[in-house]
Amino acid sequence: MMRDQLRNQVCNLKSGTAISGKWHSHKYYIVRKLGEGATGVVYLAQNENDEQVALKISFANMSVTAEVNVLKQLSKVHGKVLGPSLLDVDDWAVKQGTVMLSFYVMEYLKGEGFLPFISRKGEEWISVLVLQLLGDLEGLHQAGWTFGDLKPDNLIVTTNPFRLRLLDVGGTTQHGRAIKEFTEFFDRGYWGLGSRKADGAYDLFAVAMIFINGAYPKQFPKQEQPLKQLEKCIDEKKILRPYKKPLMKALKGEYSAASYMKNDILNVVKGGDKKPQSSSSTNNTTYATTGRRRRVKRKKKRTAETFFLLISVAIAYFVYFFIQVW
Amino acid sequence: MRNGTIKQILLITDGYSNTGEDPVAMAALAKEQGITVNVIGVMEKDLIDEQSTNEIENIAMSGGGVSQVVYAQNLSQTVQMVTRQAMTQTIHGVVNKELQQILGSETKLEDLPPEKRGEVMEVVDDLGETSNLDILILVDMSASMKSKLPTVKEALLDLSLSLNARIGYNNYSIFLFPGKKKDVEKLLDWTPNLNKVSAIFPKLTAGGITPTGPALEEAVKHFKKKRSTRGRLEEYDERSIEESGL
User: Fold this and answer.
1) Region annotation Disordered: residue ranges (chain A) (predicted)?
2) Is the ipTM of this complex over 0.90?
3) Is A178–B129 a contact, with Cβ atoms under 8 angstroms apart?
4) Looking at CA atoms only, how far is residue A141 from chain B in angstroms?
5) Domains in chain A, start-ordered, CATH in brackets?
6) pLDDT tens digits along B119-174
7) Which of A52, A150, B50, B203 has the largest count of CB atoms under 10 Å?
8) At the topology level of CATH, where does B5-243 sit?
């Protein structure tokens, strides 16, 4: 009961409420609530320099610490800005100092949600945003991390230029460990198409589902044969059909890296400019076969090398043999 | 190095116990023996009355665990969240004890500055991933649960999907209450593989009474039985793993 009361209070902080940190003694003023999740609430707040920041207070103090750890790790991922940058971590004493609430402060990303952006700007933006997302994921995966809870709610489109950013990094997990947070529609485990062990392909499954969600904003529940169901969903939407190959590959977990999926989608986008839709799939297959052919050539070259080596060794041996006999 | 084993009882119910021992007392007994008791209350459209909600909270509190009342459709996510949370809580408790030994009797994790706390949390995280887990699931079979049973089954399979993704080993056991003849009935003995449950999970309820207390008591006993028969098995397992060169 008491926990519920506290939770209620934390969820309904009034605008103007001052939050001061116990350790670093920075002060923040609540502006308004931005969102609420399973582990805490995010507020828009103002710091002492009147700058806007996002402030997350948790009901479970340990989850703040865990998330801060992830944010710190992400800032180490070289060269790419993945999540919002971390500004401060502290405790806030409430009820005359009897209860400590952990919070952290991060950069406030101003923008529009993924799905509202698509419905306002048009479906052709789905592939653009997904390509950006795949680029970011490549960096994250290479650093050994899986984003985990990848879904439209955790994506925001910032303006000038339009750029997709990742919001809630709480679910980020090291490759090879169990996914901590997920949302059923975007979870391959829910669809019976793989485990909940973190790996790059786990995120790529979610990317495919985000793509599908862009065309089906209402989502849909799982049926008896999930893979067939999803295939049908792709077939039934004009915007999804050209991307069927990369989407199905991602759903089946056949991509070993985000960059491959990015390439395949990019190829559809390029091909789609000249000849729309039906040709794009053949485009893809030629791409695949050239890859294979190149490998065959390389193999031939390798056999030739071996043969040449063998001959020269034989000749050398004969020369040696004759010299010995002379 | 061998990792410790976390022991949990997960009670899934939708109402108030009405026969036998007090479940709150039984949960306290479980806690004394190092077993955490978590409780999930399942509602459908009907809300659970306050009396039941209180009991659910009290069982979890005296069992050192986590409780949550949810709608049936959210069961899968809740089951895995509650289990996870309780594991972290247990580990957290152990780590706190260690800290107190190192830093003095009054020190808790919250008393450390945020930077240091982060380092400790990494250890807690590691342990959560690598610890072994023995989880005994107690499912309420009173008449009102009938329509929720398919969802419960789904949720349990989903739980095993989440837990089996961890590095640590898991062992599951399932008990039903009331059973067909007795207060409690064993559906599944300790097994690392919960998939079997989809074939044997009952579709019909036993109806009538809700003997939550006796069910908890029986569950605690089952942990003890396991320890005595499994001690040798575990040793054997480890040897065979070493021999296979893994």
Assistant:
1) 271-298
2) no
3) yes
4) 18
5) 2-107 (1.10.510.10), 112-274 (1.10.510.10)
6) 888 888 889 999 999 999 999 998 888 889 999 999 999 999 999 999 999 999 99
7) A150
8) Rossmann fold (3.40.50)
